[in-house]
Write a structure and sequence with these properties.
2 domains; five-stranded mixed beta sheet; single chain; Alpha-Beta Plaits; alpha+beta
Length: 318
């Protein structure tokens, strides 16, 4: 009868534990801890009664079955399991030595040791499984982050792709409408890159794209600029800046930094190194244009920079 009560009480504890997982309110957690305390007290009292007081001539087999059953219920909380073992074993061993013959209680002590070893085995398994789960979650998190990074960046240059850049454009335009800041948009195009590819090969062309992209990434990090590879040898950047002079200075720094890479390019008359032309369109806080107008005006500036000598920044302010 006691074993049946024990079983039903254990099932009630497990049911409440499931409720906590689904609805972890303070009240449910408090009720769960109270039921665990009552369950443990019942387990110790009933186990000692049938294992020692009622049974003084045989080893307390049923008692240790109760201990193992409790471990199956509570091993998810190792601290609580350890407390349960300590609180249970101390009175049990003391009463077994007091009420039983030595030839009997010695088996009870051996059973205590065996049960403790089994409990330690359970604990090791739980800890090992938790560590594996954490490692798998961490690995999955890294994999998801890598996949997301691949979805928003150009695989060669590691700059934003057009899809991600278009998302960032909307955020920046909304922020500008609120703050009335100066908006600067630039298109950066590598001069004579098609001829460079034909003469030096596509591998050298890819290396040049990567080197120039590293400059753009450094500028973006330093000045809080959003940059993307717009397509081929063309890049686009957008930023909120304090003044138009600051935007023009950043564009000129970018142009000069690319030229300073000294990537040999003898494809054009008088040209020694690979360079870039930049169309820079700046809107003051009071002026408003649609994104289509901004893009068109910036493209026109780039075209003019290409037409009038290349390796320069063509600038306009509205």
């Amino acid at each position: 009868m006691g074993a049946i009560c024990y079983l039903f009480f254990g099932l009630a504890v497990l049911s409440l534990k499931k409720n906590i997982a689904e609805n972890p309110t303070a009240r449910n957690i408090t009720n769960y801890h109270i039921e665990i305390m009552l369950y443990t007290f019942f387990m110790i009292a009933f186990g000692i009664y049938i294992g020692v007081i009622k049974n003084t001539v045989h080893p307390a087999t049923q008692f240790f079955l109760f201990i193992l059953c409790a471990e199956c219920l509570f091993t998810l909380n190792i601290c609580w399991s350890a407390i349960t073992i300590i609180v249970t074993y101390i009175p049990f061993i003391w009463l077994a030595v007091l009420f039983k013959e030595k030839s009997v209680w010695i088996y009870d002590i051996i059973s205590c040791v065996m049960t403790l070893l089994l409990c330690i085995f359970f604990w090791i398994q739980i800890v090992t499984n938790k560590i594996k789960q954490r490692l798998e979650e961490h690995s999955l998190s890294e994999a998801n982050a890598a996949l997301y990074d691949m979805s928003i960046k150009d695989p060669l240059t590691k700059l934003y792709n057009r899809r991600k850049f278009n998302e960032e454009i909307q955020k920046i335009l909304i922020a500008r409408d609120i703050s009335k800041s100066t908006l600067a948009v630039s298109i950066i195009d590598i001069d004579n890159f098609c001829f460079f590819n034909e003469m030096y090969g596509h591998d050298k062309g890819d290396d040049a794209l990567v080197q120039i992209s590293q400059i753009l990434i450094a500028q973006a990090s330093r000045h809080n600029i959003v940059v993307c590879r717009w397509g081929g040898e063309e890049f686009m950047a957008i930023e909120l800046t304090s003044t138009s002079e600051e935007a023009e200075q950043i564009a000129e720094e970018t142009r000069a930094a690319v030229e300073a890479l000294h990537i040999t390019n003898r494809t054009a008359t008088g040209q020694r190194y690979l360079t870039v032309s930049i169309g820079l369109h700046v809107l003051s806080g009071q002026h408003t244009e649609t994104w289509e107008e901004i893009y068109h005006n910036t493209s026109e500036l780039l075209f003019h920079a290409k037409k009038t000598g290349k390796n320069k920044v063509e600038f306009s302010l509205n």
